[in-house]
Fold this protein.
Amino acid sequence: RRLSSSYPSSLHEHRLASRETILEKAKNILKESLRIYRNNLKNRTFLYGENFKTKYVIKSYSALANIIHNIINESIRYTVNSIIPHILNLLRQGNYNLYVKTCMKTINFKINADRCILRIGYFDGNIIMDIHFKNLKTIKIKSEISAKPCNYEAFIGFLLSDGAIKGKNIRMHTTKHWQAVLWILINSPNVFSLRVDSVTVSTKGELRPALNISSPRIFEVTTKSLLLLNNPISWFFYILGDGSVGYRKIEISCSLNYFEKLANKLKALGYKPKLRPEKRLIVLTGNSMRKFSEWIVANVIKCGLNEPLEHLKVSKWLEMKHYAMMR
């Protein structure tokens, strides 16, 4: 094993003891993942195995949802059947390169293996793990789903939250199955490259695959469109990315650069947001929450995006529908 760090010598012995404790906790979490998933994965195929399909043509959002669901399931099978046993074997034998870096109260570990990189973050007794895969095949999805009139507005909302532009391409990186489906849907028809590039391991051993989606950009984006959310569809898709719809409140998260602009936009639309700049939150409650939900729901239904939202059982949509019907 190789340890690379910048620990002060006076703390070296303490850090080494902590390192062994943290690695032991990480091993126990990975073993729990095997226990949770393995009984349901016997005699299943491996992701990117010899017969794994890497090219698809789709014509409906339901077919797209099924394909994304299957890709996620296959990535979990691959992680459980191949990658986690590989990591545990390396840890047991001590046959790995370990790099350690400290930042404030956080200790970050990086274990470089031949098929993956395991990153472990340790803070205040909690462990966060990500398994990054190496050299996995890219899946191609040709979507022939017809474009809806409101796709541009939905795209702007997602772009301002979780999407990104890189040159002539657009990208989305997400661990949410429904978000991947909606991103492909609103940018259709198009050809998409999709790759499962990592899996997040929770402290309870649950696995959350991360999807990296790339495609040619089909919409022109102006500075004005990025600065202002000026329609209900953009607002809704922004909230799908960077908001929450909880018990009798809608919270909208944004950077301080856009905080005042977004708050003023809501005020201009007739709503009365509560501002929490210390948490970068704009909050709608009471009558403003209900009227805002009515505005969103009516327009989402009008443009026909309610059907895939219902099919995917997107919780933020279902909650907002509930608030729209409140009297």
Summary: The first strand starts at residue 3 and ends at 4.
